[in-house]
């Protein structure tokens, strides 16, 4: 039997409650990590009986949600900003997060033989390990599933963003860069892109998400939140492309204008 405890989440039958060690057993998360979740307000407070906290099914589901969000690439601080003590909207929150990631996710990763990737970028000898480590760190490639070896059991990797790697390869051709220099270029571009993403996502959280949370995450407003994020994606893309064009015109004028006039 479940009833509302007046704090925005359900109060379960005392017979269905258990201590934190049992929560750890049911979720596979250490007691230490669970206490860390509590300190970050990722878990609703337990029901206190004397000095002992008791947990229930809603806590189990919240821990699983945190795991799913972490698997989706979110950090604990970001997850904490999305959650509150009300667990009733957790399913909607997970669906929204998956939808949000889908808005910004490109084509499916491409399974590629490692030897083909090394040959494609003209990587030689010991340099290949360093270049591959950099590509993995930048999120451009990742280790393929264990069962993805080719017919000859050759090592495989997943190319996460074929378009970005293609751009790096084109930069090597146009600008006479080697693989290390091309990856350095992509890394610097990524830092600038991270700054733009931080700006827009911060504004979304401040102007859309936080007011929605403060209002209690009303179910009727979920479509508006989803639409706002999609519109933000379109706005950020248009603004970034237009701003880049403007910046390129200004930079070309400053760097090339005078020499070309001499």
Terminal Cα span: 85 Å
The tally of helices reads 10
Beta strand count = 7
β content, as a range? 5-15%
Outline the low-pLDDT stretches.
Answer: 1-10
The helix/strand series, from N terminus to C terminus, equals EEHHEEHHHEHHEEHHH
User: In terms of structural class, how would the helical and strand content be classed?
Assistant: mainly alpha
**What is the overall pLDDT average?**
82
Shape: globular
Biggest sheet character:
3 strands, antiparallel
Query: How helix-rich are the residues, as a percent range?
Result: 55-70%
Radius of gyration: 24 Å
Strand order of the largest sheet: 5-7-6
Summarize the helices and strands and which ones pair or pack.
Layout: E1 2-4, E2 10-12, H1 20-27, H2 31-39, E3 47-49, E4 52-54, H3 57-71, H4 76-82, H5 90-104, E5 110-113, H6 114-120, H7 127-137, E6 141-143, E7 156-159, H8 162-175, H9 179-214, H10 222-261
What does this structure look like?
The protein has 262 residues and is mainly alpha-helical. Helices cover 62% and strands 9% of the residues. It has ten helices and seven strands. It has helices at 20-27, 31-39, 57-71, 76-82, 90-104, 114-120, 127-137, 162-175, 179-214, 222-261; strands at residues 2-4, 10-12, 47-49, 52-54, 110-113, 141-143, 156-159. The strands form three sheets. A three-stranded antiparallel beta sheet has the order 5-7-6. A two-stranded antiparallel ribbon has the order 1-2. Strands 3-4 form a two-stranded antiparallel sheet. It is globular, with a radius of gyration of 24 Å. The termini are far apart.
